[in-house]
Amino acid sequence: MIIKIGLVVLLISSLFFPSNYASQTIKAIVPDPSWNDYIKSFGIALIAVSFTYGGYQQTINFGEEVQNPRKTIPRGIFIGILIIIALYLTISFAYYKIIGFEELKTSKGIASIVAEKMFGAPGKYVISILLFLAVLAYVNVLLLSNPRVMYAMSMDGILPAAFKKKDQKKDVLTVSLTVFAAMCVIVLFFADTFDKILSFTIFLDSFGMAFSAATIFILRKRTKHLDGTGIYTMKFFPVLPVIFIAAYIFVATSIAINTPQYAMIGIGSIILFMLIYFFTRGMKKQTT
């Protein structure tokens, strides 16, 4: 995390070198774009934004291991999100000033371009290595958190009992970790570019986030009798969950319109896991 934030701050420091600023030339856009064009463009832009600012939801998977999670987790999420927003907006401004608006639309590896302008050719390669380490940090979070979800689902009887197997010496979730890693490898076989992986994963994320947030309405209804007894409450309910759900539905719809093939693969994956869920649930009822 120190490497990742340090990398972002280093690229932001390019703003202090005006000699590297690009001459800003903005070409005329297509005249009179319709509201549909604006909405479609906004939806496509939100796909990458959802990935950029995502990750905060992973913190809840560590709730059992956090002291005073009721205060610690929300505080960590809000402080973390505010820091990330500040960093990403500032670095986006730096990219705009150093590379230029028109070049940004077609350039690849923009962080490397900025580093090369600051430090020459060696800086380009150093930044590429640091970016690779930053990606490993993201992968590390996924490998830590998602197998824990499978473990918890197994403990609740939603997934087969095999998913709660652990290595007794190292306390590693062997089956859950192996299955999740295998799923990631399978995805790489048919999604061989970043854009394809992004569309597929964000489509699944949008489904998961929208449905997860929707459960709060059911939970609040079932726990209505506990109001005023110290149960966890949410400010601005139900406005915030509705906005949150609508935003992710909008992102999923944008992916379905822009790249329907990956949306169909995502829906197929959801159906597959739903079948596994109902099969496991049926087997559990028979055993009972």
Q: Helices, strands, pairings?
A:
Layout: H1 2-12, H2 35-53, H3 69-99, H4 101-104, H5 110-119, H6 121-155, H7 174-190, H8 194-222, H9 239-258, H10 260-287
Helix pairs in contact: 1-3, 2-9, 5-6, 6-7, 8-9, 8-10, 9-10
Tell me briefly what this model is.
The chain has helices at 2-12, 35-53, 69-99, 101-104, 110-119, 121-155, 174-190, 194-222, 239-258, 260-287.
Tell me about this structure:
The protein has helices at 2-12, 35-53, 69-99, 101-104, 110-119, 121-155, 174-190, 194-222, 239-258, 260-287. The chain folds into two domains: 1-141, no CATH class; 191-288. The mean pLDDT is 84. The chain is mainly alpha-helical and 288 residues long. It has ten helices and no strands. The radius of gyration is 22 Å and the shape is globular.
Number of helices: 10
Q: Give the CA-CA distance, first to last residue.
A: 46 Å
Whole-number total of structural domains: 2
Q: Residue share in helices?
A: over 70%
- What share of residues are in beta strands? under 5%
* Rg, alpha carbons: 22 Å
Order of helices and strands: HHHHHHHHHH
Summing up helix and strand content along with how strands pair, one would put the structural category as mainly alpha
Number of strands: 0
The biggest sheet amounts to: none
Global mean pLDDT: 84
* Overall morphology: globular
| Low-pLDDT ranges | none
Comma- or semicolon-separated keywords:
mainly alpha, 10 helices, single chain, 71% helix, 2 domains, 288 residues
